[in-house]
Every structure is written in C-alpha cells, then in structure tokens.
Amino acid sequence: MSTLFNRIKTAGFLLLPVFFIMACATSADKIPADLSPAELIQRAQEASDHNRYRVALQYYQVLLDRNQDSMDMVCTGEYEIAFIHYKQKKYSQAKEQFHALLERYDTPDAELLPPQFKRLATIVLDRIAEKEKPFKLFGKK
Predict the structure, then answer these.
(1) Quick one: DSSP state of residue 110?
(2) How many CB atoms lie within 10 A of CB 124?
(3) Cβ atoms < 10 Å from Cβ of 89
(4) In whole angstroms, what is the distance from residue 49 CA to residue 65 CA?
(5) Residue 63 pLDDT > 60, yes or no?
(6) Is residue 70 part of a domain?
(7) Long-range contacts of 14-19, Cβ-Cβ distance < 8 Å, separation of 24 or more
C-alpha cells in the first residue's frame, strides 16, 4: 500500500510543474507588436466573451498605450476597461473609470469624441446606481 502511495505522490510532484507551466502559458498571452487597434479590440472582446477578463484588460491597456494620440481609441479602451470592471461587479472602480471618461466630454474638444461612449457610460452608471439602492423587502415606506 505504501508503495502505491509513494508512486502517486511522486507522479503528483512530477506533474505539478507541468500544470503550473501550462497555466502560466495560457494566461500570459504575449501581445504581438504588429496588431492593429481593430485586432487588439477583437482579441480583447473574445477574451472578455470567455470571461478571461485579465487577458481582455491587457489587450485594452495595450490599445491605450499604443494609441494615445487617437481619442477614439482612448475612449474605446477606457470605456471597455470600465465595463469589464462593471461585469466583475467592481462597481466602485467602474464608477470612477466611467466618471473619468465622462469628464472628457466636459471639455471644449468634446465634439471630437465618439458620442456613443458618453451615452453608454451614462447607462451603465444608472445601472450601478440601481444595483446599489437598498433592497426593500416589504414594499414602499
């Protein structure tokens, strides 16, 4: 019996590094330098659709880092990062990020920004406010 236990224990110790390496390899996606903004967004959305939020956030952060001169891409990245935090129920973080995005629309250059993100951020902030309302168990008071 102890021989079988020793074999199982040895096999476990040998396989543990393999599982660790596989986990790291799948989670540490290297983002190629030649990806276009559209490809970064597509890969981020695919990761988000599969609940791989950490990977999606990496792609959106790279989108921001590589496209600081494009307000369309900046607004896209900022909105999507905030929305991922909303999906993760990190409401205070999402609210901060949505409010920071909305501040961009309170500038003289607001007409140059993509209008959809202002509207979408407002909608999600309203949803967060609804979720944060106290739950009433027995009707109105």
Answers:
(1) G
(2) 19
(3) 10
(4) 22
(5) yes
(6) yes
(7) none
Structure tokens at 33: 């330098």
Average confidence (pLDDT) over 14-31: 49
Q: How many CB atoms lie within 10 A of CB 35?
A: 16
Q: Find the domain containing 107 and state its range.
A: 33-132
Domain contains 139? no
Stronger pLDDT, 10 or 54, i.e. the higher one: 54
pLDDT category at 70 given cuts 50, 70, 90 is very high
For position 9, what pLDDT does the model report?
A: 59
| Residue 10 domain flag | no
Q: Is position 83 within any domain? A: yes
Number of domains in the chain: 1
pLDDT at 134: 83
- The CATH number of residue 77's host domain is 1.25.40.10
Look at the block and give the residue holding tokens 């991922």: 84
Distance, in Å, from the CA atom of 136 to the CA atom of 133, rounded to the nearest integer, reads 9
pTM above 0.85, yes or no: no
